[in-house]
Amino acid sequence: MRVRFTIIITVVLLLSFDGFSQAARPSSSFKIARLKYSGGGDWYNDPQEETNLLKFIRQNTLIDVDPVYEFVDITSEKFFTYPFVFLTGHGNMAFTDLEVKRLRTYLENGGFIYADDDYGMDKAFRREIKKVFPDQELMELPFSFGLYHSHYDFPNGAPKTHEHDGKPAQGFGLFHSGRLVLYYTYESNPSDGWNDPEVHGDPPEKREEALRFGTNIVVWALTH
Q: In terms of residue numbers, what domain contains 199?
């Protein structure tokens, strides 16, 4: 029997103080889980990023969040309890056959993954995610895509938070049955902008931009 995993979220529209109208409150506090993976990459770096983003979301939307840091192993049963999983790092990653199967099940049945290349993850990420959806290629999303306008307006797509190799920031997606199930930022690195100010020394406006963009990703994931 095929195991089916369904995430139930009672959010129809998530209201901001910027003009969205109220609809429904989530039934329980929203959390982000950091994805733990093998292969040697530092999946665990900068754990304060998610908590800072969640605090920003709580201050600027009516999404009920729990701003705590949690990580999850793909093989853990708890993996399927998170509607939103965050993946980042600087180096290698490797998924086992079982992890590939569980990742696909998760994404095909309501789960969402946001992956951010923190510099040096791109080659391994593309290789491993190809195992999950071998019939798809990561597709660059047009600037008109709804995620870029779901809460705050980003007319030029993903912001350029940190400079890596002088390339433009890009945002890529994978879809299942018409739903964006994975979003990947390359040469953008907004998650570093979620960090505490003293970590990277980013100016306030750059951190604000990154936190707003992270809010867009969460709002889009919870409402589509």
A: 33-223
What are the structure tokens assigned to 103, written together? 């990742």
Q: What is the pLDDT of residues 7-50, one digit of tens each?
A: 333 343 333 333 323 333 334 799 999 999 999 999 999 999 99
Indicate whether 124 belongs to any domain. Answer: yes
34-63 burial, b at 16+ Cβ within 10 Å, e below that, comes to bbebeeebebeebeebbbbbbebbbebbbb
Count of domains in the chain? Answer: 1
In a domain, 3, yes or no: no
Read off the CATH number of the domain in which 67 is found. Answer: 3.40.50.12140
CA atoms of 122 and 142, how far apart (whole Å): 20
Q: What is the pLDDT of residues 153-209, one digit of tens each?
A: 999 999 999 887 889 999 999 999 999 999 999 999 999 999 998 887 789 999 999
Residue pointed to by tokens 């993850």: 121
